[in-house]
Specification:
Blueprint (H helix, E strand, L loop, with lengths): L6 E5 L4 H12 L3 E6 L2 H9 L5 E5 L5 H15 L4 E4 L14 H29 L2 E6 L13 H21 L4 E8 L5 H4 L3 H8 L10 H11 L11 E4 L9 H5 L4
Helix pairs in contact: 1-8, 3-4, 4-5
Length: 256
């Protein structure tokens, strides 16, 4: 999978899945710009990457800041080959307690942030008739649901809907737009839930273990590669088989 010498932008790149994506792309020879609302953490993550990298502070809900992000990367490296639009949040709120502000915050970051990041980076890709855009969605929303995350699920389903039409609009310029749909990935946020909770999560996954940010990074690296040029508007599920069983009983039958 060829991403060597690509110029890649990763939003939400300071931690978790975004950091894992940046690490995999850098290990494969890409120059990586880690963009995050927390620039200091993005810089710390960028300092750990092999090869050339940079950190950029950005609020993906602000069109002026996403445009500035794209301009900074083009000024520094001359082009943008890959955009990994990954920035997202996942606060929990039951439906009867959720406020309009709760809803707007999640949809703004997770859905509008994708739109603005893609819109900002597209001119650079159009100018060279080449680009690879990978969006981080989730199995929650497009495929499954979970109580307390109606706003999160709506935002992640919105991403895949956006992807399908956006991919059509740029397909004739060798620009692809695809999505990864992670299952339960072990990040700092999940660790805070405790080992008992994590064990319950593992019990729902046929593979029997949680994914890692690097697992998502490898999937992104494929979709960001030159070889994936005939893949667009596609959703790549990376969940250890979590969405396969028809019931918990099906998982219990594994190995019987």
């Amino acid at each position: 999978m060829t991403v060597e010498n690509s110029i890649a932008v990763v939003t939400g790149g300071a931690r978790g899945i975004g950091k894992g994506i940046g690490e995999v792309l850098a290990e494969k020879g890409a120059t990586v710009a880690l963009a995050d609302v927390d620039k200091s953490k993005a810089q710390a993550a960028a300092d750990e990457l092999p090869g050339e990298s940079m950190a950029v502070g950005v609020d993906v809900t602000d069109p002026a800041e996403t445009e500035a992000l794209a301009a900074m990367v083009v000024d520094e490296y001359g082009r943008i080959d890959v955009l990994c639009a990954n920035a997202g949040i996942f606060p929990s709120a039951d439906l009867d307690e959720m406020t309009v502000d709760d809803w707007d915050e999640v949809l703004d970051v997770n859905a509008k942030g994708i739109f603005l990041s893609v819109q900002a980076c597209l001119p650079a890709m159009r100018s060279q008739d080449y680009g690879r855009i990978v969006l981080t969605s989730s199995i929650t929303g497009p495929m499954v649901g979970y109580p307390g995350w109606t706003h999160y699920a709506a935002s992640k389903a919105a991403i895949t809907g956006f992807m399908r039409t956006a991919a059509m609009e740029v397909a004739d310029q060798d620009i692809t737009i695809n999505a990864v749909l992670p299952g339960n990935i072990r990040t700092g946020g999940l660790d805070d839930l405790g080992e008992e909770y994590l064990d319950r999560m593992r019990a729902s996954i046929p593979k029997g273990e949680l994914g890692t940010p690097e697992d998502i990074g490898h999937a992104v690296a494929y979709l960001a590669s030159e070889e994936a040029g005939y893949v667009t508007g596609a959703s790549l599920v990376v969940d250890g088989g979590q969405t396969l069983p028809e019931s918990q009983l099906a998982i219990e039958e594994i190995g019987e």
